[in-house]
Design a protein that fits this description.
5 helices; alpha+beta; binds zinc ion
Length: 302
């Protein structure tokens, strides 16, 4: 069964409008008429627990579509929901099929020309780049930017901890030391640490802890996204996707949160040490409650 496609029709000629990163507007691929993208509201944070409780098995639907322009049928790769017709290059999208649909994105900011230039420099710096790859660039073929899914989590944590605080002090001891080949007795200062038990409660707020939500990209590259600000994100809108590739998550919301916890917990350890104070700290146990968990299903340009 073929899935029905969606596109952004041009108001003057009926061609396909695509998102133009340089002007942040829509542009028709045929008549080049541009139009504004009027934003539809604010980015919201969704409730994590209700999403976890309602989550079902992934949809296994084959993503077969028919091109609106040339009629050829083709299948989207992996979890893609936006791409271009491999025969006539028409932008083609379907509604996201996964249980959780994206609700926010950062639009592309790099124009086609700038992306190509940057990519050429990158490929040029790699002597092992396959020739086919280099030829592909020399022919000036279009690079299609890809939107990649991420999870962004918010939570308020309460952590109870037990540990020890170490305060250092110095004592004078007499030691045998070697001076010009002869052993001599000398007084030296030596550090000692007095340990006392420490315990407490730490409250922390975490906002937009971001982890990659796809297995199609190497995790080290996925997690190396630069920090972003909540003012960079827009409500999810297919108009920002038109002309690009976009894929849905393959890492479940719950598994993403487990990864976010690693980052959250290491920050909590750091804060616990600061709370213990002193010169040295030992942590025996931290027990953390994660409250008010919220999430965003994000798409980032990649
Ligand atoms: Zn047009
Ligand atoms: Zn086509």
């Amino acid at each position: 069964m073929r899935l029905s496609t969606t596109n952004i029709p041009c108001p003057s000629c009926g061609g396909s409008q695509v998102f133009l990163p340089s002007s942040r507007r829509l542009s028709c691929e045929f008549c080049h008429q541009e139009s504004d993208i009027v934003s539809n509201g604010k980015v919201t944070t969704r409730d994590y627990l209700s999403a976890i409780n309602s989550s079902t098995q992934e949809s296994k639907t084959k993503r077969e579509v028919a091109c609106k322009r040339c009629g050829a049928s083709f299948v989207f790769k992996d979890r893609e929901f936006a791409s271009r017709c491999p025969y006539c290059d028409t932008p083609t999208m379907i509604e996201p099929l996964q249980e959780i649909t994206p609700n926010a994105l950062i639009p592309f900011t790099l124009s086609q020309r700038a992306a190509q230039k940057r990519f050429k420099i990158w490929v040029g710096s790699r002597w092992f780049a396959p020739n086919a790859f280099k030829e592909y660039l020399e022919e000036g073929k279009k690079l299609i930017g890809r939107y990649i899914p991420y999870w962004g989590y918010d939570t308020h944590t309460i952590s109870h901890y037990q540990g020890e605080r170490g305060d250092s002090y110095y004592v004078t001891v007499t030691k045998r030391v070697e001076v010009n080949g002869k052993m001599e007795l000398r007084s030296v200062q030596e550090e000692r640490v007095s340990w006392s038990s420490a315990s407490g409660v730490i409250d922390s707020d975490f906002r937009d802890i971001t982890v990659g939500a796809t297995t199609t990209i190497d995790p080290s590259r996925l997690d190396s996204i630069s920090p972003w600000h909540s003012s960079d994100i827009h409500p999810f809108d297919l108009r920002y996707i038109s002309g690009f590739k976009a894929e849905e998550y393959t890492i479940e919301l719950r598994d993403g949160f487990d990864r976010a916890k690693i980052e959250i917990d290491s920050e909590i350890r750091y804060r616990v040490k600061a709370d213990i104070g002193g010169d040295y700290q030992r942590i025996h146990n931290i027990s953390t409650e994660y409250n008010d968990i919220g999430y965003k299903a994000l798409l980032f340009p990649f």
